Amino acid sequence: MKTIFAALLGWLLVGKLMAGDVATDFTAANKLYAEGKFAAAATAYEALLATGAASPALLFNAGNAEFKSGHLGKAIAAYRQATQLAPRDPEIRANLAFVRNQVQGATLRETRWQNWVSTLTLNEGTLLTAVLFWVTLGLLAARQLRPLWRVKLTGATRILVALTIFSATVLGLQAANHFSQATAVVTTAETSARSGPFDEAQNVFTARDGAELSVVDRHEGWVQVANNTGKTGWLSAKQVAIVPGA
Fold it and tell me: What is the pTM for the complete model shown?
């Protein structure tokens, strides 16, 4: 028992030390940005993200530093991940829209339905659906346990059943979009999407820095993508940042 307690205490201490290191490194990166050293700040933020640290503030600042460094694709990828953690943050959405307007050439955009569904995070949608489900279950139980309440609770029960079904449907669409509709954001100045997953394949279309393309398939360091005209091609995974669906 003492051994288990010591191990748990050790993990807690390590967690606190790591959190302290992240906060220190984040402050240092912010200082670089404030001094106008945008490329160095972008590298510092990228190193933090590589450790698994992620927050709306970190991703937002990383996007700002990448944009100031002239990296449209990396900025868009950071902003998009930030919106998934804080979907209703007006500054993040404004910066994302601004940088997207700088992108040249064909690129994908979310539909109105996707934008509407993504106003809640996946966790928020799950929690809302769970709450509605248990409240509905409670009302149904009350109708059975208290027959005299049945008539009074009929209207509320029907409304909650409908809301639960609607919420669960939206959650299902949101989850499907998040886990199966990934986007590849081009992070190089210009790249050629090829007809196959190898360098010698024929060029199908050209994509520029910041272009957002739908991920179709992946194969040994290559990503098959589709642009907004329906054309498909293969890009090296080193040339894109993969972002989960909204």
Answer: 0.79
